[in-house]
Design a protein that fits this description.
By secondary structure, the chain is of the alpha/beta class. It has one domain. 33% of the residues lie in helices and 18% in strands. The chain has 7 helices and 9 strands, in the order ααααβββαβαβββββα. The strands form 3 sheets. A 5-stranded mixed sheet has the order 1-9-8-5-2. A two-stranded parallel ribbon has the order 3-4. Strand 8 and strand 9 form a beta hairpin.
């Protein structure tokens, strides 16, 4: 049996590689197909970095799309016609790496994945987790990500204004969720609970047309931890539960603000 056929047979056992094998593409083929158009888009994105830094604080929530398609963001799988990507301002410093952003939402990082796969054939280095080596990327995943960058029309840049990290949890017997003068709480368990000072993020989103390098407007949003978090199923990893709650609330606050500023923007997975 020829080597290529044998390799495809093995790949078919793993769904993540099956599509790439079926299409007859290896990573070299994928990179050759996408490199020129994606590098052109990345050059346009890089040119927006200084503009994103220098723009004044958003004074009104408004985005004006004139003469172009409506933005579509890949919040999750199954959304067709994606033509917009979300990035943190820190992600624009080095497009082949993720910026040092705590509690990063999953919808970000596409731009950095494209730049990284073209230069390193790996997922991008994440400055928030310096001890973790970036994993290699499959040809199927590379094709998927590079398709998104090739179709890129709009870039939504998150620019943080104020940020407070959630505090470390402490065990307490004062477990009422309605204690006067506090916004923090935890799930009671045998008379004890965990208490913490919640995280807080105030940020704004700058919207750009990548093709014309035009600033189209922006909008702000605020997110914080929920007042009470059920950590029953998290065992001893209460800190991770607090971080996960904060990250989910950031994403939901961003989606809610985007719905108002861009009524046609899909915000469901």
């Amino acid at each position: 049996m020829p080597l290529r056929t044998a390799r495809c047979f093995l790949f078919l056992l793993a769904p993540a590689f099956a599509a790439g094998c079926f299409l007859g593409k290896d990573l070299k083929d994928v990179l050759a197909e996408h490199r020129a158009p994606v590098e052109a888009k990345l050059a346009n994105v890089k040119a927006l970095r200084e503009q994103a830094r220098a723009l004044p604080v958003v004074s009104s929530d408004a985005v004006h799309i004139a003469g172009g398609p409506a933005p579509v963001v890949a919040w999750g799988s199954g959304i067709a016609g994606v033509n917009a990507s979300i990035a943190y301002l820190e992600d624009l410093d080095n497009l082949a790496e993720l910026g040092n952003v705590p509690h990063r939402i999953a919808a970000t990082g596409t731009i950095n994945r494209c730049a990284s796969v073209l230069t390193t054939h790996r997922e991008p280095y994440d400055a928030a987790y310096p001890q973790s080596a970036p994993p290699t990327i499959s040809s199927y995943r590379a094709d998927e990500v590079l398709d998104l960058c090739e179709a890129l029309r709009y870039l939504l840049v998150i620019r943080s204004i104020a940020f407070v990290e959630p505090s470390a949890p402490t065990t307490s017997t004062a477990c009422s969720l309605f204690d006067a003068g506090t916004d923090d709480g935890g799930a009671a368990d045998a008379g004890t609970c965990h208490r913490f000072d919640g995280g807080y993020l105030k940020a704004e989103v700058l919207v750009f047309d990548v093709e014309t390098s035009s600033h189209l407007g922006g909008f702000g949003f605020v997110a914080e931890n929920s007042a009470a978090i059920d950590v029953t199923d998290d065992g001893a990893n209460v800190k991770a539960a607090i971080a996960g709650n904060f990250r989910r609330n950031i994403e939901e606050a961003l989606k809610a603000a985007a719905r108002k500023a861009l009524p046609g923007l899909p915000t469901e997975d």
